[in-house]
Design goal:
By secondary structure, this protein is α+β, with helices and mostly antiparallel strands. It contains 5 helices and 14 strands. The protein is about 20% helix and about 30% strand. The longest helix has 21 residues.
Length: about 280
Amino acid sequence: MAILDKDGFLRGKKGDSIFRRVNDKPVVSQAPSARKQTDESKSTAFEFGLASNTARAIRFPLGMYYLGLDGGLVNRLNTAVRFALLFSPFAEAGRRDLHDAELAPLAGLQFNAHAPLNRLLKPRPQVTLRHNFTLNITLPGFSPKKDLLYPKTGFYVGCTLTIAPYAFDFRREFYIQLASRETAITQPYFEGFDWDFDEYLPAGAVVLVCMSLQYHIQSTATERKILNIRQFSPTELVAAYHIPPDPGQAATGWQDNYLPSEGYRGNEMLRNMDPRWTW
């Protein structure tokens, strides 16, 4: 309601007009009209929230690879998950999660933009998902002097390469840190590797494979001092896979190696969006 003040000026709202006083002059403006959110805008906003929450659940177990190095990973991972959902060939917005998504946008994600793995190390790993749902990962031999960048220090710097697979089951809200492998990069020639990961990947899981380099100096005969240098602390998601569900296999109980997906609310969000949603 608009009122007349002691100086004879109208103040307040009347109909779709807003009256006010500016520099002793009466001003009338149009009140903003309420806009009804369309179904399309609702689903877009919903997927932004779902992508952010899913990315958070992924970041939590992988914090060791990026904390203190690159705060920009939050936005990059949110965007990658958002595009993975957007490119889903199986389900529409509001009825899909990362298990329905196209995982290609996640493969190649750099955890530390200050130290992209493909800039520091020229040879690229080859990750293969075998028919029995185990992993094989190879890396060709190379000359560290030519194909690997090292930080410049007054000490001899060594480098260790680590491969770490993770399996996420967002629908059952757990993840598994699978057995990792690591090897020292030897001088003057590194022979590469051909590693079989014999641990069976859980049916229905989303598997993400991390590859990282860690530089160090030998502080004593038995101890290493890790060089936490931002420009030389790379980690990359080198592969992302869907493991098909097994309809003939009953869901097992909670296992000792299952870890809860901290903060994941995707199932609740999807049910709130559509009570009929189920996987």
